[in-house]
Amino acid sequence: MIDNNNQHDEENWLLDDDHAEADEESQSPRKRPWTVLVVDDEKDVHTATRLAIQDIRFKDKGLQLLYASSAEEGFRMITEHPDTALILLDVVMETDDAGLKLVRRIRGELNNQTVRIVLRTGQPGQAPEQEVILDYDINDYKTKTELTVQKLFTTVISSLRAHENLLTIEKNRQGLAKILEGAGDLYQLHSLKEFASGVLKQVSTLLDVGMDGILCVENGNQVNGRLAVEVIAATGSYEYLTHTNDFSSLPELAEAIHESLTQKKSIYRHPYDVLYITSQNNREFVVHFSPPWPLEDVERNLLEVFCQRISAAYDNLYLYQQLRKSQEATVVALADLAEFRDSDTGQHVLRVQKLTDALAEELKKMKHYPQDLTAEFMEMIGMASILHDVGKVGTPDHILFKPGKLDPDERTIMEQHANIGAQILHKASLMVEGNSYLAFGSEIAASHHEHYDGCGYPQRKRGEDIPLSARIVAVVDVFDALLHKRPYKEPWTLKDTMDYIRQRAGSQFDPHVVTALITLVEEDRLPFDV
């Protein structure tokens, strides 16, 4: 029990609950309180402890007091509140060593090493102090008779300070691990919107809270004398901003964002915290997030470190996009070169690109070929498809533009365009590590005239030995060629074109690809007018 030695101590701790609640509500902004758990089978001890410590404040934060009357109930409470800072724990409860067993469960089963545990006992002989100190991971050991109000105050403050130090170390350890993992994830993202969403997710993970947040990019314009921003990702209650970009109902947030961009630094003004991020190519970003409590110093420090990683990851994204644009420009230039001599093909390659993308999406929706339809395949297949006839640069004009049917010798020369295109693109693809538009384009150029039944050219491949990219483009190429005028034919109707393709499903064409095309046509979802 708590020993009240004098009237002065009594006046310090005999304070009514209303006073404590009013004091708690007067805090602005309110900070997350320290959680203290009292585990004792005597209700009077609960009451006396509450009266003694309820008004204690440390680092401008009050206490949230929890109570348990048994070791089992205490274990449940600490499980439900893993952020508990201090446990004032009785040794003898339902058994003579119930408190000691609870210590071992907390440290062992829950692996909670940061909570500070102060043992209190009215029967010191039941648990000798020296043995307990040596055998158990506790912060202090007190007999109930020696715990005056002042000593209890000292014990609580020293325990909270020790908990804070341990928590800072642990938060830094976990935070740095999350930063390394999160930054690594950001390096894998290849679009700005994906990147922005990834940043919001990683900030939420770093702070270990669910989060309403936005990521904005400064767009170089000014509105009413202020730098304008574009919202590129938002979560929770801010999600509507991705559609409206309208901050008129959030003047305090708009002011914090403007201040961050103007001063080029992060602003911590709960609840309007704003991270400032800049990159080597002079793009500026701001991230607003809304944790329920003002951030601790350790959290701010971790966020600043994360900002540096975000900046490096964005620079990586920028370089990746520039490289990808360079590849796309090369692909378009090669396709234009092949098309330059054949004005009648018009926009053929662009239609092929759009329809190839659409068929790949439909096949994925139909759950066909999941091993082939990877994210990389889906990203590259459309652009790569425009290279399917690049080998025609080696076809003589008198054969390429012949208005009638080709004779056998001419047909042999015409068919060489598949190997010519494949070889040109394969040689170029060797200069790029991993898969690229050129690598996909090479396999399309080589195999888009192969037939599903093995009767095509140049290698007479059959079935799924033909790359899926080429099986898709085989259908697309014929579909578009039949619908449009060519030197050797007039355009066909959509009905006649679809009848032709249906009849050759399983012989010339992959039947699944044909089914996907039929679906797009019947549902009027072709990516161009016919």
From TrEMBL:
Residue ranges, compositional bias (Acidic residues): 12-26
Pfam families on file: DUF3369, HD_5, Response_reg
Residues in Response regulatory domain copies: 35-159
Residue intervals passing through the bilayer: none
PROSITE patterns (UniProt xref): HD_GYP, RESPONSE_REGULATORY
Cited CDD domains: HDc
Region (Disordered): 1-30
Residue ranges the record marks as coiled coil: none
Domain HD-GYP: 323-530
Protein's UniProt keywords contain Manganese: no
GO BP, sorted A to Z: phosphorelay signal transduction system
Segments of skewed composition (Basic and acidic residues): 1-11
Domain of life from the UniProt record: Bacteria
SMART domains reported in the protein's UniProt record: HDc, REC
GO MF term (any one): transferase activity
Keyword annotations from UniProtKB, A to Z: Phosphoprotein, Transferase
Keyword Mitochondrion in annotation: no
Sites bearing 4-aspartylphosphate, chain numbering: D90
NCBIfam families, per database record: HDIG
Protein name: Putative nucleotidyltransferase with HDIG domain
Organism: Paludibacterium purpuratum
